[in-house]
Amino acid sequence: MTPVGLFDVAGKVALITGASGAFGMVAARVLAGAGCRLVLAAGKATELAAIAAECRTLGADVTEVNARPETEAACAAMVASVEQAYGRLDILVVASGMNKVAKIEDMAPETFAAVMDANVTQSWLLARAATVQMKAQGSGKIVFVSSARGLLGHPAGYTAYCASKSAVDGITKALGCELGPTGITVNAIAPTVFRSPLTAWMFADTPEAEAVRKGFLARVPKGRLGEPEDLAGPLLFLVSKASDFYTGHILYADGGYTAG
């Protein structure tokens, strides 16, 4: 196999949850362009239809599932829809999740629980559902979306988010160990701030944004914020044969932020 061939995922079947979100859309575009057959799942029907249509223009075979992975039954149904459409599941990208920001004294317990459920429990349920099919095949690639905040704290009311991403990192490592002998790899991509609808204000040409950027970039050796394409390479690596010897790994897409 050629070095470039190590990254060939053409014909692979990928399930992407949170496909209408910032990272989910990046994953959908990257895997569509790489020749994967896609099952895109999201709770927002209009946004889901838009990213599905975009992926079809890239030549991808796309199935849409208008649902969130909120329950065991919902996750099982997603995996079943993949098996029904394509007969196998090679790649699972868990890009669904949420964040709620508040100081600890202002955060309701149910808000903390909701963030933990969306980011941790639902990731675990999806991996659980996918593992059955992947074990039967003898292979599979699971990629979670973590964050630099799984490693580092944050002073602005991120207790729920940081805790949830630390837990995602723990699941990644534990499942990497558990599933290693089965032919399934489990890894996570942990970005820092990158351009998306949620962070657009940080890229704006305003005094407020400039002040925030200045403070943040002082910690980033690469000297800039992240762009969607900065996530493309790490994702393609983790879902391809190139990463067959990597499992239980947290790959920081952060311009060196967590290194210093």
Plain-language structure description:
The protein is of the alpha/beta class and 260 residues long. The chain has a single domain (4-196, 227-254), classed as 3-Layer(aba) Sandwich (Rossmann fold), CATH 3.40.50. Helix 4 runs parallel beside helix 5 (159-179). It is built from 7 helices and 7 strands; from the N terminus they run βαβαβαβαβαβααβ.
What's the mean pLDDT score?
A: 94
Share in helix:
40-55%
Q: Tell me the name of the CATH class.
A: Alpha Beta
Strand arrangement, major sheet: 3-2-1-4-5-6-7
CATH H level, superfamily name: NAD(P)-binding Rossmann-like Domain
Q: Could you describe the largest sheet, including whether it forms a barrel?
A: 7 strands, parallel
| Low-pLDDT windows of residues | none
C-alpha termini separation: 37 Å
Count of beta strands: 7
β content, as a range? 15-25%
For the record, the CATH architecture stands as: 3-Layer(aba) Sandwich
Radius of gyration: 18 Å
Q: Output the structural class.
A: alpha/beta
What is the overall number of helices? 7
**Succession of helices and strands:** EHEHEHEHEHEHHE
Principal-axes shape call:
globular
